[in-house]
Amino acid sequence: MNRLNLRRVTAVAAGALLGLAGVAAVAAPASAHHSEVKVTAECDTAKGEWVTTWTVQTYAPEGVNNYRLVKAEATSRTGETTAPFTVEGINVTEDGANPLYPHSVSQPLVGKVRLAGNVTGASLSVRAQWDNTFQENDDRSASIKFSESCDKVVTPPPAEANPKATVTADCTGDVAVTLENGREATKDASFTVTGTDGFTKTATVGPGKDTTITVPAKNAGRIKVTEAGQEQPLFDDKPAEAKDCVEPGEPAGSYRSTCDELIFQVENPKDGKTVTVTFTPSRGEPQTLVVAPGETKTVKFPASEGLTVTPKAEGLDDTSPIAWERPADCTPGGGGGDQGGPTLPLTGAATGGIVAGALVLLAAGATLFVVARRRRVRFTA
């Protein structure tokens, strides 16, 4: 099943921005299928290794209970060199496995990985497929940067702090700066965190303790972390951006190929805005859906060899055709012509609330699209 992200254009930009910083902390996930990936890390100074904790949480409509991962790729970075690694417990479930969908939607997957102390960053990208055959096409990812190497400490220096900082952005653009003073430290660490437009906060962290300072998105263009006893900043850079974020209130839709039809459905949540989508087939007349908040509407096109349908909504700057694909369980000579072309996955993003879409290909020909707020509209095949 492919996913098509449809994004609404909002005329009330000020209202959309009000309270944006708090969305990730208090809002419920979007009702459509999607995954979220999170990462935290701490330095094990006894071994000189970074201990990273990765969490994958998936969301799906009511009645969808299980899923599997069809992609799970983790990469570490040391300077300009990258290397793959495996997160135990967050793995691809191969076709033919029993059970095929081993993970519960209600339970997050959590895995810990130790990385070398000189690693400068790491990331994990996943894609999920649920037991109703809906599958993500876009990667869901999380990444982390390390301010300095994690060094093994054999003998703690006398009367010294051992400060470290990690910097992680969330989907709202807010940045969490975690300040740590090593367990072997013998005095407090005095941190200063500065951002853009005059943002400054200080924190004193005792030995073996840590604290987190949140830098609002408007002040997070560049972040600098210093400690009173250190000559060089612990971190002085633009934070890595959170990727593939899904926010509540966005319309979701799906399309799927049956033996006789290519079917599109648009579901608009109650807290959404009215969305208008026009579907233009390669043969036959276009059909338009106007979907108000709380409504779900469907259009159908008779299946035939070579049939494609192009969705369009206001604000889209790239609309690629979606091909009917004959499901594997159709009998030869059945409805829908002899064969269909391959389904073309599309991904979408938007500027200031523009409705856009991303399409995800499933092995059985079923496809899903999920709408997410992004910064510009983009369709890729």
Automatic annotation (TrEMBL):
The chain crosses the membrane at residues 349-372. Keywords: Membrane, Signal, Transmembrane, Transmembrane helix. Residues 1-27 form the signal peptide. This is LPXTG-motif cell wall anchor domain-containing protein. It comes from Micromonospora rhizosphaerae.
